[in-house]
C-alpha cells in the first residue's frame, strides 16, 4: 500500500479514537459514581447488620448470665448433702463451708441466702462475709415474687425461679430454689422447707468480661432511661426496668468505606492518567502506521504459546546473522533441540500439561541462552538457538552441555513431575557459506543422529550423516516396495511340548531378502518399518501369510509377533479378525506375542488394545520376559495367556551362579498366576532338561528346529507320527 494512502485516513481515525476515549471517560465517571453510591448503601446495610448483631448478642449475653446463675443454683440446691445439712439442726458448719464461703471471689455467685418456709433467714453471706439484713432491705420487692412462685409450684415441676432484681449493691441475676435431694424428693414434712437464694451482681468487672467474651465495643451498665443510641433493658420479673446495657456501634461499614474510598479515588485518577496516556499513545500510533505494520509482522514471527520466535522468525533472524557473518568473517552456530519423552507426557497427563511443560522449557531456555542469541520454537517440542560470533562454536558446545544438564533434572508441571530429556544437533556456518535452510537441515539431521545413538546427547553435523540418511530413506523405500510386491517371506520355528517333544505350535517370523543387497536382519527392517509407518502393512502381511500356511496344520497353534506401534491402530483387532475369518482360522488357535516395553510406558492404551484382542478370541503372550522390567503387577493386570522366557535367562544357565534359582523363581511366579510358560533359545539337552524340571510346558530353540519354510513344517509334522526320543532325567 502506498504511503499516501495510509496518511489520509489518519486524521479521521484520530478523531474517532478521541471520541471513543471521551465516551469511555464519561462511562468511567458514571460507573465510579454508581460504585460509590453502591458502596455507601452497602456501608449502611453493614452498619445495620452489625448493630442488629450487637443487639442480639447483648440480649443473649444477659440471658446467658442469668442461665449460668440458674444452673449453679440447681447444682447447689438439688444436692443430697445439701438436703441432709439444710434440714439438720447441726448442719450450719457445712452450710457455711459450701454456701457462705463460696461467695468469696466467685465467678458463679457473690451472695448466698438460706431461708425457711416462714422466709426467716437461716444463713446470709455476701462476698465471703456474713451479713445481717432482711430480704426486703437487700433485695427489695423483686425477690418476693420468685419465692412465691417456687412455693406454689405443682408436684413434678422444678422448684426453681430466676431473674434480675435490684439489690442494695446493684443489679444482680438472682435465683430461688427449694433445697432437695438429687432425685427431687424430701423426707421432711411439707411445712419444713428450706430455700436457697443465689445472687450474681453485674459488676463492672463482670460487664467487661461480657464485652470481651461477646466482642461488644464499649459495653457498660447504665441506669434506666439513660440517653443511649444502642441499649438492652434489664427488667425484673414484674417487668420493671432496672437498668440498661449499652455499647458503642463499631460502624464497620463506615470503616470499610473510609478504607476503600481512597483506593477508588486513586483508581479513578489512574484511569484518568491511563486515558491521557492512551490518547497520547493512540495519537502517536496513528501517526506511525508503519511502526504498527512492523509490530504486526513481529507478531506473525512469534510463537503464541511461548512468546519465542516461530519458524519464520527463526529464518528471518538466522539470515540476518548469516549476512552479518559474511561481513565480519564470523561463525553462526545453529543448535537444534528436541525433547525426549514429551509425547509420553502428553499421553499421560494430557495436552494441557504438555503446553505447561513447553512453557516451562521456554522459560528455562530464556534464562540460559545469551541475550544476543536467537531463540525460537519450531513447533511441537522442537527448539532452535542461533549463536553468532568468533567463539560461536566453543560457546555452542558449552551451551549444549548446560542444556543436557538442565534436562537431566525433572520439570514441575503444577503438582506433577515430568522426567524428560533432550537430543541436540548442531551445524556451523563460516562467513555465511551456508544458507539458513541448509544450516537448519544439517542441525536437524545431527539431532536425529543423536536420537538414534541413544538420546540425551548432542552431535555436530558430519557429511556421513547425509549418506546414512540417504541409505535409511532408500531402505524404507525398498521395504515399502517389498511389502507392496509380496517380497516379504515368512518362516516358522516349531514350539514343542516339553514332555512329548512333539510340535504343539509354530512361531511365524518375517524374512526379507532385499534385492541387490541380500538378507536383511529382522531387527533392521522391522525398526525401519516402525519409524517409517510401514509396520501396520508389514504386520498384516506377515499375519496373512502365516494364516495361509497354518491352514495345512489344523491342530497346531500359530504365534505371530506384534509390534507396539500396531497397538496405536484403533482398527487393529478388527483387521486381525478379518484375516482369521478369511482363512477360516479359529481365533483360539492364534497367539499374538508382544514385548513388555509397551505395557510399561503405555499401560492404559495397552490394556484397551489387549481387551479388544481378547474379545475376538485370540490369546496374548508376553514375549522376552526377563529381558526388561515387567513386574508381577503387569502380569496380573493384563491377564496374559502365556509367558515366553527370554533367551538370556536360558543362556545364563551355562554361566552358573544363581541363574538356576532366578529361572526357577520366574517359572514358579508364572505358574502361581496360572500362566503357562514357553522357554526360548534352547540349544542343548541339558538346558531342555533343566527347563522341564523347572516347570516349562513348551520349549523352542535350535535344539529342536531352526526357523524353516512352511513345507518343511509340514514334513516335520508328518514325521511326528513315529515315536520321538524322550529326555532321560536322572
Question: Mean pLDDT, nearest integer?
Answer: 85
Spans where pLDDT lies below 50 across 5 or more residues: 1-10, 724-730
| Silhouette | elongated
| Number of continuous helical runs | 25
CATH class of the largest domain: Alpha Beta
Query: Per CATH, which architecture of the largest domain?
Result: Alpha-Beta Barrel
| Biggest pleated-sheet summary | 8 strands, mixed, barrel
The neighbouring-strand order within the major sheet is: 17-18-20-21-22-23-24-25
The fourth-level CATH homologous superfamily of the largest domain is EAL domain
Total strand segments: 25
CATH topology of the largest domain: TIM Barrel
- In total, the number of domains comes to 4
Percent range of helical residues: 40-55%
* Gyration radius, in Å: 48 Å
First-last Cα distance: 98 Å
Structural class: alpha/beta
Strand content: 15-25%
Amino acid at each position: 500500500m502506498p504511503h499516501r494512502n495510509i496518511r489520509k485516513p489518519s486524521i479521521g481515525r484520530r478523531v474517532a479514537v478521541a471520541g471513543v476515549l471521551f465516551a469511555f471517560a464519561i462511562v468511567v465517571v458514571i460507573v465510579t459514581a454508581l460504585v460509590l453510591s453502591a458502596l455507601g448503601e452497602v456501608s449502611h446495610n453493614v452498619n445495620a447488620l452489625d448493630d442488629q448483631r450487637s443487639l442480639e448478642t447483648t440480649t443473649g449475653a444477659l440471658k446467658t448470665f442469668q442461665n449460668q446463675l440458674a444452673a449453679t443454683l440447681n447444682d447447689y440446691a438439688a444436692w443430697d448433702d445439701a438436703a441432709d445439712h439444710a434440714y439438720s439442726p447441726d448442719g450450719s458448719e457445712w452450710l457455711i463451708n459450701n454456701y457462705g464461703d463460696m461467695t468469696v471471689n466467685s465467678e458463679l455467685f457473690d451472695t448466698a441466702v438460706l431461708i425457711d418456709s416462714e422466709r426467716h433467714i437461716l444463713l446470709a453471706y455476701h462476698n465471703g462475709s456474713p451479713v445481717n439484713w432482711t430480704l426486703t432491705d437487700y433485695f427489695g420487692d423483686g425477690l418476693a415474687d420468685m419465692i412465691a412462685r417456687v412455693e406454689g409450684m405443682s408436684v413434678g415441676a422444678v422448684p426453681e425461679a430466676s431473674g434480675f432484681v435490684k439489690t442494695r449493691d446493684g443489679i444482680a441475676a438472682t435465683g430461688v430454689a427449694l433445697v432437695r435431694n438429687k432425685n427431687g424428693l424430701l423426707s421432711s414434712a411439707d411445712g419444713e422447707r428450706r430455700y436457697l437464694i443465689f445472687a450474681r451482681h453485674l459488676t463492672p468487672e463482670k460487664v467487661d468480661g461480657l464485652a470481651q467474651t461477646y466482642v461488644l465495643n464499649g459495653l457498660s451498665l447504665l441506669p434506666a432511661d439513660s440517653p443511649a443510641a444502642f441499649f438492652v433493658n434489664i427488667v425484673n420479673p414484674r417487668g420493671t426496668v432496672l437498668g440498661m446495657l449499652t455499647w458503642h456501634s463499631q460502624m464497620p461499614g463506615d470503616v470499610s468505606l473510609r478504607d476503600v474510598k481512597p483506593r477508588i479515588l486513586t483508581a479513578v485518577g489512574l484511569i484518568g492518567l491511563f486515558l491521557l496516556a492512551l490518547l497520547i499513545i493512540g495519537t502517536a500510533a496513528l501517526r506511525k502506521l508503519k511502526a504498527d505494520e512492523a509490530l504486526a509482522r513481529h507478531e506473525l514471527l512469534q510463537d503464541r504459546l511461548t512468546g519465542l520466535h516461530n519458524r519464520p522468525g527463526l529464518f528471518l533472524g538466522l539470515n540476518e546473522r548469516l549476512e552479518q557473518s559474511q561481513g565480519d568473517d564470523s561463525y553462526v552456530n545453529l543448535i537444534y533441540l528436541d525433547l525426549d519423552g514429551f509425547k509420553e507426557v502428553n499421553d499421560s497427563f494430557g495436552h494441557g500439561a504438555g503446553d505447561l511443560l513447553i512453557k516451562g522449557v521456554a522459560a528455562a531456555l530464556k534464562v540460559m541462552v545469551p541475550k544476543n542469541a536467537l531463540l525460537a520454537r519450531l513447533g511441537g517440542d522442537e527448539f532452535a538457538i542461533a549463536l553468532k560470533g568468533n567463539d560461536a562454536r566453543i560457546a555452542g558446545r558449552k551451551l549444549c552441555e548446560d542444556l543436557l544438564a538442565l534436562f537431566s533434572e525433572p520439570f514441575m508441571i503444577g503438582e506433577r513431575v515430568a522426567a524428560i530429556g533432550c537430543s541436540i544437533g548442531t551445524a556451523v556456518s563460516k562467513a555465511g557459506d551456508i544458507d539458513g535452510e541448509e544450516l537448519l537441515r544439517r542441525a536437524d539431521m545431527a539431532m536425529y543422529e543423536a536420537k538414534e545413538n541413544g538420546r540425551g546427547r548432542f552431535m555436530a553435523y558430519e557429511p556421513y550423516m547425509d549418506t546414512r540418511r540417504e541409505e535409511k530413506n532408500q531402505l524404507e523405500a525398498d521395504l515399502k516396495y517389498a511389502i507392496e510386491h509380496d517380497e516379504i517371506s515368512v518362516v516358522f520355528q516349531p514350539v514343542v511340548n516339553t514332555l512329548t517333544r512333539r510340535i504343539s505350535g509354530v512361531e511365524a517370523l518375517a524374512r526379507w531378502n532385499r534385492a541387490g543387497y541380500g538378507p536383511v536382519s529382522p531387527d533392521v527392517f522391522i525398526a525401519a518399518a516402525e519409524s517409517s509407518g510401514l509396520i501396520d502393512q508389514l504386520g498384516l502381511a506377515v499375519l496373512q501369510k502365516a494364516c495361509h500356511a497354518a491352514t495345512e496344520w489344523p491342530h497346531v497353534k500359530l504365534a505371530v509377533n506384534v509390534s507396539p506401534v500396531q497397538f496405536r491402530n484403533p482398527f487393529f483387532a478388527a483387521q486381525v479378525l478379518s484375516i482369521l475369518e478369511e482363512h477360516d482360522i479359529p481365533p483360539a488357535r492364534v497367539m499374538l506375542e508382544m514385548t513388555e516395553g509397551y505395557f510399561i510406558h503405555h499401560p492404559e492404551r495397552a490394556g484397551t488394545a489387549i481387551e479388544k484382542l481378547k474379545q475376538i478370541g485370540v490369546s496374548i503372550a508376553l514375549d522376552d520376559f526377563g529381558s526388561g522390567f515387567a513386574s508381577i503387577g503387569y502380569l496380573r493386570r493384563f491377564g496374559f495367556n502365556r509367558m515366553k522366557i527370554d533367551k538370556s535367562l536360558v543362556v545364563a544357565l551355562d554361566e552358573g551362579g544363581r541363574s538356576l534359582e532366578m529361572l526357577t523363581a520366574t517359572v514358579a511366579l508364572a505358574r502361581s498366576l496360572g500362566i503357562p510358560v514357553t522357554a526360548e533359545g534352547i540349544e542343548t539337552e541339558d538346558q531342555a532338561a533343566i527347563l522341564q524340571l523347572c516347570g516349562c510346558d513348551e520349549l523352542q530353540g535350535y535344539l529342536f528346529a531352526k526357523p524353516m519354510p512352511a513345507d518343511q513344517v509340514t514334513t516335520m509334522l508328518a514325521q511326528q507320527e513315529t515315536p520321538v526320543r524322550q529326555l532321560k532325567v536322572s
